[in-house]
Amino acid sequence: MARIQSKKNSTKKEIIIEKAARLFREKGFGAASMRDIAETVGVEAASLYNHIQSKSEILQAICFKVANDFIAQLEEVERSNASTLEKMETIIRMHIRMMLEHYEYVYISDHEWRHLPEPYLSNFLNQRRSYRKRLSDVIEEGIHKNEMKNIDPYVAVLTILSAISGIESWHRSRKTTGAETLEENMVKYLIEGLKK
Amino acid sequence: MARIQSKKNSTKKEIIIEKAARLFREKGFGAASMRDIAETVGVEAASLYNHIQSKSEILQAICFKVANDFIAQLEEVERSNASTLEKMETIIRMHIRMMLEHYEYVYISDHEWRHLPEPYLSNFLNQRRSYRKRLSDVIEEGIHKNEMKNIDPYVAVLTILSAISGIESWHRSRKTTGAETLEENMVKYLIEGLKK
What we know:
2 copies of one chain form a homodimer. Chain A is built from 10 helices and no strands. In chain A, helix 1 (12-27) packs across helix 4, helix 4 runs parallel beside helix 7 (120-144) and helix 5 (84-101) packs antiparallel against helix 7 (120-144). The first copy, chain A, is elongated, with a radius of gyration of 18 Å. Helix content of chain A is 70%, strand content 0%. The first copy, chain A, has 2 domains: 8-53, Arc Repressor Mutant, subunit A (Orthogonal Bundle); 55-192, Tetracycline Repressor, domain 2, CATH 1.10.357. By secondary structure, chain A is mostly helical. Chain A binds chain B through residues 149, 151-152, 154-156, 158-167, 169-170, 176-177, 181-182, 185-186, 188-190, 192-194, and chain B through 149, 151-152, 154-156, 158-167, 169-170, 176-177, 181-182, 185-186, 188-190, 192-194.
């Protein structure tokens, strides 16, 4: 399910990106300096430049890694023979797991993409637009096939993705609700709201 | 429904708050200066201080105005004899309208509360926690009365409030979907997802 590079056998560059991701989330991309990143990684700033040229390079790596992951998983879903409701359930679950298991990466990709330099910024936004369109196509197909209720697909996608991004507030909370309860109940709510 | 001071017969102070709200959303509370506010209002910085002592005073006014509005409307709903589903529909609709009609105020109250000074910060967070608990009580009652499906009330409230805060992305979009379509479809999705 939720992919993104595991921590085992990471290269130095991957470790830098991972630690920078956490720093970006805590301080914000704008406020975090290359010096801060070096400190978090535990190397001299000069040696950091052997692996990474700029903060921006790290942001690009994070945003496009997250985008690749979502797109690869969506393509798998699109190719499957599942019903449109099953497809949406897989997509919703995948988004929730990404928020639960790769929170820092998804958070940065959601909040800091504005700092991407061109041509990456436009490319990222185009991919995002196309991704949302493809989700809305699955819902449109579901309505057409009478598997889903008649609902505006744009509003349904907005509702789903925004609800899931609210898991941010769960991450910041005392977490009296477990991750599994969160996932199961949010899936239930969002899928049953689509059903006929 | 969505209340908040109308623009007619506003006092000078209200006008300042209104213009500052827009500036805070555009630049962020941290980046906006009293000088910027004076410029937006069209007065000298010195004359601004006749009405407002600090940026923080404006932020407090906005956050507590929004909180008061939500709480007053929730109390009205709680006192009514409506079913729990009708109550949740009224609450969801009220939140959506606030996001549509008083976007700047709600945006700032949602995103910039961290900059509130004490004792306002703790007070604001306590009110927010209590507000969410009261929404979750309505859902718990709905489940108990067999009007709603068995769903974790905390997750349901998180899903609802996060979905609605996603209207931010609609505000930033080209708005090919009208406000009414947005409201009706989001209400439908979120209410039918709660139904038994």
